[in-house]
């Protein structure tokens, strides 16, 4: 990174370990897709990271579902603010979505998603049953690119810090 400014942040990526910690601690991110007018749009959604993919759910009537069926490319941004990691750590993924409405996917997803969000509690069981509604679908987001940032690395390399060394 240049010593005199913050324009080149290519060396400020999260380590794989820190990215894994972030995904373990944070349960929601901003999920973004392209609407029917070709405009970017996003909402905060809870997710389940599993096997390198992110799994989410929504009612089929939500605008994002037909939009993703029309154009399945999307992105997900996860931020550390409010977590035990503190602020300044983020990762954004872009990838392709597959919409599932089959019983087999729902049968494994709902219990695992509910436990991920609510722990192994009675509340998780109630949440699982609430999710299992007739017109709900599962979004499988398969990332193929990521861009991450660790603000701590940027500050360690800032002119103020490096001049004091």
Tell me what you see in this structure.
Helix content is 33%, strand content 35%. The chain has one domain: Pnp Oxidase, Chain A. A seven-stranded antiparallel beta sheet has the order 2-1-5-6-7-4-3, sandwiched between helices. With 165 residues, it is of the alpha+beta class. The longest helix is centred in the C-terminal third of the chain and has 16 residues, at 103-118. It contains six helices and seven strands.
Give the biggest sheet. Answer: 7 strands, antiparallel
The CATH homologous superfamily is named Electron Transport, Fmn-binding Protein, Chain A
CATH class wording: Mainly Beta
Structural class: alpha+beta
Residue runs with pLDDT of under 50 for 5 or more positions: 5-9
Order of helices and strands: HEEEEHEEHHEHH
Question: Rg, please?
Answer: 18 Å
> How many structural domains in the coordinates?
1
Counting DSSP H or I runs of 4 or more residues, the number of helices is 6
Q: What would the principal axes of the Cα set say about the shape? A: globular
Cα(first) to Cα(last) distance is: 17 Å
Arithmetic mean pLDDT? 88
Q: Report the sheet-strand fraction.
A: 35-45%
Q: Give the tally of β-strands.
A: 7
Q: Enumerate the strands of the largest sheet in spatial order, edge to edge or round the barrel.
A: 2-1-5-6-7-4-3
CATH architecture assignment: Roll
CATH names the topology as Pnp Oxidase, Chain A
């Amino acid at each position: 990174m240049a010593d005199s400014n913050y324009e080149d942040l290519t060396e400020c990526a999260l380590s794989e370990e820190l990215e894994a910690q972030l995904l373990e601690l944070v349960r929601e991110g901003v999920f973004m897709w392209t609407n029917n007018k070709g405009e970017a749009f996003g909402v905060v959604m809870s997710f389940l990271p599993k096997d390198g993919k992110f799994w989410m759910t929504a009612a089929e009537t939500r605008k994002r579902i037909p939009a993703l069926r029309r154009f399945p490319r999307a992105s997900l941004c996860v931020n550390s603010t409010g977590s035990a990691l503190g602020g300044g750590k983020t990762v954004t993924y872009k990838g392709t979505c597959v919409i599932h409405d089959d019983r087999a996917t729902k049968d494994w997803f709902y219990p695992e998603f509910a436990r991920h969000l609510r722990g192994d509690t009675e509340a998780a069981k109630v949440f699982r049953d609430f999710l299992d509604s007739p017109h709900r679908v599962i979004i499988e987001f398969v990332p193929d690119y990521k861009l991450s940032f660790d603000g701590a690395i940027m500050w360690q390399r800032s002119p103020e810090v490096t001049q004091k060394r």
